[in-house]
């Protein structure tokens, strides 16, 4: 990250943004802004945030709160991401209260190995996402990625000593839960905070019970493990209230406050220090820090919602790749000319070989116009000659009937055909096998063929030695 980057975090009650002037060594916040969407429209809130942060255009990232999504944990018997993407909608269709095609789905891998891959799938309404993107584009914001708010904070914690933990990102009207196991996101849930409790320094018992049920119900974490911790981020007042009640509810686990803005290599310019609100802006700041790193996050800028480049971006790309593209075009033209010359010579050689084969096969034909077509005509004449009953027969050649008989009498049946007689309507097949059951099986298999309208056993007799069964079938041909 070497250029200024505008990063926007969208929730159903607030929007917040930071402008980051990044470098490989440090992440520096040069602007920020926030606005609520309860007392004003989303469009007005975006314009206010842009003005506060000093954004006029450029690269940007967006995250949406977990409350916009629904989540499911799925296990699949393969690890290939393309196969997972293809199979996931079919796995989720029975668990979706709405048409699965109306949802945009993305996933992260929680665990691989053994005979299955554990998946965390997230779904958002295509219509709702399209509406927000339309409003953002109208405001000059064209994000290159769309993630889930708060998830980057969990990934940052996982880079430290903690391997298994619970992160609760607390807002004023919602909270996002992230369970991390073996440094991988293993579960994501969004919990509501009752409006009458929102903004107060109290976490109600219903919320605590929901957290407890989520942790214990997932069976992903051992709350009695001495190394297990619960990390909190978000609203300062609600975190203080939550710390007092969550630890007893979760078997006395340690509660730790996590602030992405307080991490090493992160700096906030002094002139905006008083405007920076960690409870609103730390989430998106963590997403900036993780941007471009292999972190296993979601990105809903995909499929129909993939970012479309602007004319300026296309012009820059053209100037950057004009010379290599020109060389590539020249090389392609030269290669095409060479290939055409080679293929033309090969085509002429094959044409001569076809003519030679035709002359050897039909030496009596002296006028050769189209050897392939002329051979096909001759082949059709030969087929008609060997049709049961002649050209007016049932319509199947002897070769076709023999192929059908061979296919319908499998090799596992010990059947030896002694004689086969065919006329225009009937085939009589005389054969030898080991027992009467095989005779019945052959008759049933042949009766299923569309080539025959009726298959009957004319006779079936035990041989004088008693080790074979001689039988004869009568097969009525079905017309084409």
For the biggest β-sheet, the strand order reads 8-4-1-2-3-14
Strand content: 25-35%
Q: What's the architecture of the largest domain, going by CATH?
A: 2-Layer Sandwich
- What helical percentage do the residues reach? 25-40%
Low-pLDDT windows of residues? none
Mean pLDDT: 86
How does the major sheet shape up?
Answer: 6 strands, mixed
The tally of structural domains comes to 3
Structural class: alpha/beta
Report Rg.
Answer: 37 Å
| Beta strand count | 18
Terminal CA distance = 71 Å
Shape descriptor: elongated
Please write the string of helix (H) and strand (E) elements. Answer: EEEHEEHEEHEHEEEHEHEEHHHHEEHEE
Question: CATH topology of the largest domain, which one?
Answer: Nucleotidyltransferase, domain 5
Number of helices: 11
Q: Report the CATH C-level class of the largest domain.
A: Alpha Beta
Structure description:
By secondary structure, the protein is of the alpha/beta class. The protein is built from 11 helices and 18 strands. The strands form 4 sheets. It has a 6-stranded mixed beta sheet. Strands 11-10-9-12-13 form a 5-stranded mixed beta sheet. A 4-stranded antiparallel beta sheet has the order 15-16-18-17, with helices on one face. The longest helix is centred in the C-terminal third of the chain and has 51 residues, at 311-361. The chain starts with a strand and ends with a strand. The mean pLDDT is 86.
